[in-house]
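FORM 12-B: Structure-to-Sequence Request
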């Protein structure tokens, strides 16, 4: 088995965090917290476990955050005991090559995508009965037993194969091609976030950022509520063009002023001598896909009273100097979203992947348009370099693919 992983070893992580911003290639040295390793294929840990072979995997910002150790050890989740080794790559489409005798959901040859494999153990994987309240409710991400000892998945999408519990992956419908299957997981992130606060017809909606997740938000908002008026803040020209193609009515640069926001929303801008001011009567919903203190502060000041800001972007460090006064002063709802789980829409509640497959079936998700660069697995270093090149390579989604 080949795999790229990051060990939760504090000295190496701190060294990587300090040196990698100056020398990105440090992550491939022996002193880094990261490894590309090859080791004997592990046996299946139990009768309900699978071995799958990777066909294709997208490179996600969260993988890169782990690889380059962007996380600050002072954030709250760092206090929780959990996974000590992170196998990178979760936007994968794979084929089952071995199934234990107790497997009931899959057969050899079936295609699968990751569901909970990347996020560690839960009651299902540990085969705990009865399930904790969260697992029973279809939200294993919040499992109360996630720190209990037991077999864990081995390997990830950045490699040739991985071993996982049958409940940690999801079946790929036959009508999905490889690109759609690979993009189903990041699309589910957008669907879950949009359904946390779905827009209504006529709503003015802002998406801050134009990376792949932000562009998927534009795509999903347009698919779920085409009558919403979508604005996007995008830094690079190629992102601006893609946002417009996906249904955005207004494109703003990352230098957009508060006056620009007021003009688009029909709100009013009020200046102040000691801060950036405020827009009243702003957007109904803002999806902050950057998630740093500056963008969240702006989002709160650009949202109308009783509107909603959805925190999408994952910034794994404490926010400094964030102004939350609009949460009480204008009763702006500030809510978070993370990966996927169970979602309610139009009176139905089901797994996010089911909603995603419905949208694919209705041909409302042109996700293939977002794939800009493809590399064979052996060229993983170059693929990661391109994925981290900002606007230089005009990259949106970079994928690793099995050749031959």
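FORM 12-B RESPONSE
SEQUENCE OUT:
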């Amino acid at each position: 088995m080949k795999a790229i992983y990051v060990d939760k070893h504090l000295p190496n992580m701190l060294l990587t965090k300090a040196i990698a911003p100056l020398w990105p290639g440090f992550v491939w040295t022996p002193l880094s917290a990261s490894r590309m390793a090859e080791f004997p294929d592990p046996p299946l840990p139990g009768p309900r476990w699978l071995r799958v072979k990777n066909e294709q995997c997208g490179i996600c910002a969260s993988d890169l955050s782990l690889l380059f150790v962007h996380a600050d050890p002072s954030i709250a989740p760092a206090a929780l005991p959990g996974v000590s080794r992170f196998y990178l790559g979760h936007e994968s489409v794979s084929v089952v090559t071995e199934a234990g005798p107790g497997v009931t959901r899959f057969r050899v040859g079936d295609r699968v995508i990751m569901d909970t494999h990347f996020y560690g153990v839960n009651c299902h994987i540990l085969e705990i009965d009865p399930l904790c309240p969260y697992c029973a409710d279809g939200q294993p991400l919040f499992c109360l037993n996630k720190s209990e000892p037991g077999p864990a998945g081995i390997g990830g999408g950045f490699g040739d194969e991985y071993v996982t519990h049958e409940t940690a992956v999801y079946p790929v419908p036959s009508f999905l091609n490889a690109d759609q299957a690979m993009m189903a997981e990041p699309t589910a992130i957008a669907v879950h976030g949009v359904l946390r606060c779905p827009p209504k017809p006529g709503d003015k909606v802002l998406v801050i950022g134009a990376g792949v997740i932000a562009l998927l938000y534009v795509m999903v908002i347009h698919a779920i509520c085409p009558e919403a008026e979508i604005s996007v803040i995008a830094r690079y020209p190629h992102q601006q063009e893609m946002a417009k193609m996906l249904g955005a009515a207004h494109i703003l640069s990352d230098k957009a002023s508060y006056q620009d926001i007021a003009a688009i929303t029909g709100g009013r801008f009020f200046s102040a001598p000691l801060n950036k001011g405020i827009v009243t009567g702003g957007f109904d919903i803002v999806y902050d896909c950057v998630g740093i203190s500056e963008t969240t502060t702006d989002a709160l000041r650009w949202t109308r009273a009783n509107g909603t800001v959805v925190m999408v972007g994952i910034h794994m460090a404490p926010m400094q100097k964030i102004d939350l006064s609009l949460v009480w002063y204008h009763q702006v709802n500030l809510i978070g979203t993370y990966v996927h789980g169970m979602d309610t829409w139009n009176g139905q509640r089901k797994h996010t992947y089911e909603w995603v497959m419905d949208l694919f079936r209705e041909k409302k998700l042109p996700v293939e348009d977002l794939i800009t660069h493809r590399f064979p697995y052996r060229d993983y270093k170059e693929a990661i370099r391109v994925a981290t090149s900002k606007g230089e390579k005009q990259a949106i989604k970079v994928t690793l693919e099995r050749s031959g």
